[in-house]
Design a protein that fits this description.
The chain is α+β, with helices and mostly antiparallel strands and about 550 residues long. The protein has 16 helices and 23 strands.
């Protein structure tokens, strides 16, 4: 045990040598050396003297992650499995069963089987709950159980899963899985092309460029680029996607850091595909990072009309740093700025509230910038669309319903209750919506609004000030008003919830490809984008001051 500890204790000393060899840390020489020495001594004494057996690896993992949690959610320690997951995310290629899987405490839930991949061929469906992989129970597996589904090409894995209360088994053969950055593109009408860009892996610009050229060959005179739900990815790929629509040599993004070598200006490097074709970019609250570089830059350059809801607001850049034993540190190194000079970071992780939560930058603190033509744009809260659509912005109750997987679970229930349903001209009825409301009521759905949380804090303060009795009646009236709102809120958000339910249900029958086809005929954001593009005067009016 002591020999193992001695080897482990050497690692911080080696790390110290690396730290001190870099100019950035020279000014903090003594403080860094002091803190590492304290930690090394503590770690040794803890492992040698604690009353029960300790696991040094788990202790170190907890220590590192707790330390990084005080910075921002994007600065992370990646173990060997995490490094592989990051590689998959960047390349889109991996060996597995070919399904999007959600890891829960006691099961793995199939979110989406990819069409014609092994999980699909083995008969697995969205909503299936894998409880055992081989002889290993998911509930008893301490690490990420999703790793159990990986393997070498051609090897098989047996899974035990639960579907609608019944237990089944299936043997699934591992295969190479390729996740396209552009999973779909098509003509919406005779002159409007539609491209879905779902992630910024290393195929993003190449596949987007191919789709753009193909659609132009099919007669597209205008383009809709869909970045909704795109979480971002590689910075260079974002620049290259912008480059498809703007000339070579155009400034796209600037990064600023305390380390001078990280201060960069990024310009387009290639000849564009088309600098004139009218372009609408769709975004929502889940469009983040590289998606915001593309949408924000195209907005700043007056090259596209942005439609949808305010984007997520991630204006921070990360870089992986190699560590020992195949691990990495993904560390935030800089902020990025669009061509107008704005940073769209929405949360301030360096000034937190009394509970330690990052605070959202107040609108009063936003700064105004100008686009190329002089239109006002603002920093501090994501990319604000030129045409904001109410249906694109999830309400508090919609987010609560989604976070509790009630839309997903109802779609599963609907699928097995309607085995022969056809998706041509699919429409949910008022009865279906009533069934959904009855379903979420049966699941004991409840949620607490931010207003309720604020009132509760204020009421606790009133107790401390001994004035709670004086405001009790008013406080109860406020709570009754909030409860009345929540009772009616589902009906008030019917249009949005029906759209989300329809999307999830269509995907159950026709996979993602069928959903995107359904979008082109029924999605309200695409309809609005098509309407804007069909009227040149209207389109151009968005791009003028």
């Amino acid at each position: 045990m002591k020999k193992v500890l001695k080897k482990r204790i050497l690692l911080p000393v080696l790390a110290l040598t690396v730290f001190l060899s870099t100019t950035a840390f020279q000014n903090d020489f003594f403080e860094i050396a002091k803190q590492i020495e304290i930690f090394t001594t503590l770690f040794k004494e803890l492992n040698m003297n604690y009353v029960d057996e300790t696991n040094p690896g788990e202790l170190m993992d907890t220590a590192i992650k707790s330390m990084l949690a005080d910075l921002d959610p994007y600065t992370n320690f990646l173990n060997e499995q995490d490094v592989e997951a990051a590689r998959i995310n960047q390349t889109g290629d991996y060996i597995g069963i070919g399904a999007k899987v959600k890891t829960l405490k006691e099961k793995l839930v199939i979110v989406e089987p990819y069409k014609d991949y092994p999980a699909d061929k083995a008969g697995l469906k969205a909503g299936d709950e894998i409880i055992k992989v081989g002889n290993i129970s998911v509930a008893d597996y301490k690490d990420d159980a999703g790793n159990l589904l990986q393997g070498t090409p051609g090897s098989k894995v047996e899974v035990t899963y639960v579907r609608q209360g019944k237990t089944y088994t299936a043997a699934i053969e591992h295969a190479e899985v390729e996740i396209n950055a552009v999973p779909y593109y098509a003509m919406v009408n005779e002159s409007t092309g539609y491209i879905v860009l779902s992630k910024f892996n290393n195929k993003a610009s190449q596949q987007t460029g191919y789709a753009l050229r193909d659609l132009k060959a099919q007669g597209a005179k205008r383009i809709i680029l869909d970045l909704r739900g795109n979480p971002g990815g590689l910075l260079n790929e974002a620049i290259n996607v912008v480059n498809l629509f703007v000339p070579k040599g155009q400034l796209v993004v600037t990064t600023k850091s305390k380390v001078k070598s990280y201060n960069k200006t990024y310009y387009t490097q290639k000849d564009p595909v088309d600098t004139d074709i009218p372009l609408v970019v769709l975004i929502n609250g889940s469009s983040a990072s590289a998606s915001e570089i593309v949408s924000g830059s195209l907005q700043d350059l007056d090259r596209a009309v942005i439609v949808g809801a305010r984007s997520f607001g991630k204006g921070l850049v990360q870089r992986p740093k190699l560590l020992n034993y195949g691990t990495q540190l993904k560390v935030t190194i800089s902020r990025y700025y669009t061509p107008s000079g704005r940073c769209i970071q929405a949360l301030d992780y360096w000034h937190r509230d009394e509970k330690g939560n990052a605070v959202r930058i107040a609108k009063e603190s936003y700064n105004e910038f100008k686009t190329k033509s002089g239109r006002p744009v603002f920093d501090g809260g994501g990319v604000l669309p030129d045409e904001a659509l109410e249906i694109s912005k999830n309400s508090a109750i919609t987010n609560a319903i989604l976070n509790q997987d009630l839309v997903f679970d109802f779609a599963t229930k609907y699928y097995y209750s309607h085995p022969t349903a056809k998706m041509d001209n699919f429409r949910l009825t008022d009865k279906d919506f009533k069934d959904f409301k009855d379903y979420i009521k049966a699941q004991n759905f409840s949620f607490e609004t931010d207003t309720e949380k604020a009132f509760a804090i204020a009421y606790e303060q009133a107790k401390d000030d001994r004035i709670d009795s004086a405001i009790q009646a008013e406080y109860n009236n406020l709570l009754n008003g909030l409860n009345a709102y929540k009772t009616s809120a589902i009906d008030k958000n019917k249009e949005q919830l029906m759209s989300l339910l329809s999307d999830e249900i269509v995907k159950r029958y026709d996979y993602s490809e069928g959903l995107y086809k359904y979008y082109t005929l029924n999605n309200p954001e695409i309809k609005k984008a098509t309407e804007i593009l069909s009227k040149p005067a209207v389109y151009n009016s968005y791009l003028r001051p």
